């Protein structure tokens, strides 16, 4: 049975919530464990559908893992890699699993990886991944929906990315770890997750510098230089931003723990300009509040105002005072939440990669569906803001990136519950039986 959220809007969120490990970082750490001929332990691992998929990819390649849900840790033993093929059934479910290509090429010098899937938010080609691997010496052919890469050895090279692709930067970092000589990635992605991957790689014995700037240098090391290690993943800046937005949207006040404020600088500045208050309580704890109606401003997606927060920012603008413009600079289909926000009463005009949002007094509850992970979270926030009841369908998208989402929101005072059609039918039957 397909699960849904039932949300009764109008509740002010208040209290305390803790952010989990960064999904977009831990998935790359898991892929990088393939480089180590031994065990690697990762802490702060959220229990998410996407994490399960990546662990299944590793298992299918011959790695063994144990996941401690209480400790939020994973131990991966990649001593015995028995396959170089990442199958379509797994890779098609999550684009991030394509990162296994670089790791397999580094370790095995050969990889057969299905072309990726994931959220339908626009064209996300793998050209930059392939051109970069070819520059390192790989011979690549694409057939039957798979990328087949092979090299007698990988040799460091200077690689310029036409756009600062996060996925390509990460794949090439992994591939270059065991290449001969040095690799320089220019116009590299600069997101915090890139820095975290570099820190993870250095912890296991790699030699990576420059992460967080536009130029990353990887000095190749010998396989025997890599070793078992323990590493703690950074907090999830997107989850943190989501809870911040939910509190602000409902004019609430909450403490949010396990946050790296430096990873949210641009988003914090935007929320403050809109009328929110953000205070640093401790180095990794912030207090977020909002008393009155927000004011509209403009948003442009970029590394420190990530595209993953764009849909959530749009939801805030729907009831803000004035007109705000959102410019999506990365993906052409990342306004998929617009039709459902309009169903809830939002006034949004879309012009190519621009969304012009005129604030209305209130949103009203409606039945909507998550089209992708972040659009789904945005619709949940819209439901919390709206008058009346909202039903959010297709929760499998949301479950990819938010651990215990409804439970954390409930702790903040939200009226939200998860149910499926069979649960609803049972409740109706019980009500009728009591009459």
How would you describe this protein?
With 435 residues, the protein is an alpha/beta fold. The chain is built from 15 helices and 24 strands. It has helices at residues 23-32, 49-60, 88-91, 100-108, 127-135, 166-176, 192-203, 237-249, 265-274, 310-317, 338-343, 373-385, 395-399, 405-411, 421-434, and strands spanning 3-8, 14-18, 39-43, 64-68, 73-77, 85-86, 110-114, 139-143, 146-150, 158-160, 182-186, 207-209, 215-219, 229-232, 253-257, 277-282, 285-289, 299-300, 323-327, 347-351, 354-358, 367-369, 389-393, 415-420. The strands form 6 sheets. The protein has a 4-stranded mixed sheet with strand order 22-23-1-24. A hairpin with a 4-residue loop joins strand 4 (64-68) and strand 5. The protein is globular and about 65 Å long.
- Main β sheet profile: 4 strands, mixed
Computed over alpha carbons, the radius of gyration is 22 Å
Query: How are the strands of the largest sheet arranged?
Result: 22-23-1-24
Q: Figure out the total of helices.
A: 15
Distance between the termini: 28 Å
Shape: globular
**Percentage of residues in DSSP E strands:** 25-35%
- Low-pLDDT segments, ≥5 res: 118-124, 427-432
Helix share bin:
25-40%
Structural class: alpha/beta
Q: Quick check: average pLDDT?
A: 91
